[in-house]
Sequence to fold (78 residues):
Amino acid sequence: MADVSINTVAKLLVDVGTAAAGFHYRAVRNVKVHGLQCDEVWCSVGVKAKNVTLEQKSMGRGGRLDLDGNRRGHKSCA
Fold:
């Protein structure tokens, strides 16, 4: 490891992130999307079925939702 200040590294990361965000905002325009893959969305919405308490289950929690809010089963997130 190099002998550097954590404050220097943190400031550099903030500056690089700000510059990258500005570049992305200016440069990325009119992107045509032909398909959108959101595998991880199924695992992140609500509560994973394996962690649902009986009380939560009685309130309708614990299922997977699709992007329209409809309940779905998705085997890869079990």
